[in-house]
From TrEMBL:
Part of the ABC transporter FtsEX involved in cellular division. Has ATPase activity. The chain holds residues 9 to 244 of 348 of the full protein. GO terms for biological process: amino acid transport. Belongs to the ABC transporter superfamily. Signal peptide: none annotated. One of its GO terms (cellular component) is plasma membrane. This is Methionine ABC transporter ATP-binding protein. Keywords: Amino-acid transport, ATP-binding, Cell membrane, Membrane, Nucleotide-binding, Translocase, Transport.
């Protein structure tokens, strides 16, 4: 039983202001096993971000079936999606940290929303800051961090609620090669030490090679190729 199971998933955006209807995701089937690192690659406009927004229930699918941890997301109401989203972490290209909060405040936020008791919040935040190598940055504001440090905070924040699934949307695209390498190593450790399943959107082949076990190639909303990284990249 895969952790993520997509069947015939289609997402269309309605026609607007002289634009035709867009079929952003077109009849996609995809299985992602628990504990796997799955890369989604493809050119700009291929449908990668839409696919990830479907996975965390930020956009409703037009048709098809999306199961995460055995729960069908398609057709759920906002109120029913909320607890499922707590089990799904997200990290972003531009980090999306709250600039007006310290690192500690950024990590505390999802725990407050989840209603976690204060003592448990402190234990968890302290543990995660050590895990990402920033134990002395608790009271620092994001503007005083480097890009790599910001993404470490982003990763720590995504892990606060112990998600089984971590979605990464171009998480290293704003970073230089050396910092990219450090962040990818950290994501590998997340996968190995916590067993977190990772779905990583990227347009960088180096990221796929260094990070992923499996890769799906998207073109015009469709998955045109999918399999183990080694097989997909060694095929003619
Ligand atoms: P990628 O992440 O691979 O660049 P996207 O999922 O962002 O691709 O976009 C896929 C297609 O859907 C593109 O044609 C894009 O213009 C369109 N699209 C994405 N989001 C919206 C939206 N909110 N409204 C209308 N069209 C959209
Ligand atoms: P914000 O700027 O978002 O308010 P703060 O750094 O001021 O974030 O901290 C928010 C809450 O977390 C405060 O109630 C504070 O007591 C607690 N807190 C912050 N840092 C620590 C820490 N290192 N150890 C224990 N509690 C902390």
């Amino acid at each position: 039983e895969p952790l993520v199971r997509l069947r015939n998933v289609t997402k269309t955006y309605p026609a607007a202001r002289g634009r035709n209807e867009v079929r952003a995701v077109d009849d996609v089937d995809l299985d992602i096993a628990a504990g796997d690192i799955q890369a989604i690659v493809g050119y700009s406009g291929a449908g990668k971000s839409t696919l990830v927004r479907l996975l965390n229930g930020l956009e409703p699918a037009t048709s098809g079936s999306i199961q995460v941890g055995g729960t069908e997301l398609v057709g759920l109401r906002e109120r029913q999606l909320r607890p499922i989203r707590l089990g799904i972490g997200m990290i972003f290209q531009q980090f999306n940290l709250f600039e007006s909060r310290t690192v500690w405040g950024n990590l505390a936020y999802p725990l407050q929303i989840a209603g976690v008791a204060k003592a448990e919040q402190q234990r968890r935040i302290s543990e995660l800051l050590h895990f990402v190598g920033l134990p002395d940055k608790a009271h620092t504001y994001p503007r005083n961090l480097s890009g790599g440090q910001k993404q470490r905070v982003g990763i720590a924040r995504a892990l606060t609620t112990n998600p089984s699934l971590l979605l990464a949307d171009e998480a290293t695209s704003a970073l230089d090669p050396e910092t990219t390498h450090e962040v990818l190593r950290l994501l590998k450790r997340v996968n190995e030490e916590f067993g977190t399943t990772i779905v990583a959107i990227t347009h960088e082949m180096e990221v796929v090679r260094e990070l992923a076990d499996h890769v799906a190639v998207m073109e015009n909303g469709r998955v045109v190729e999918s399999g183990a990284v080694y097989d997909v990249f060694s095929s003619p």
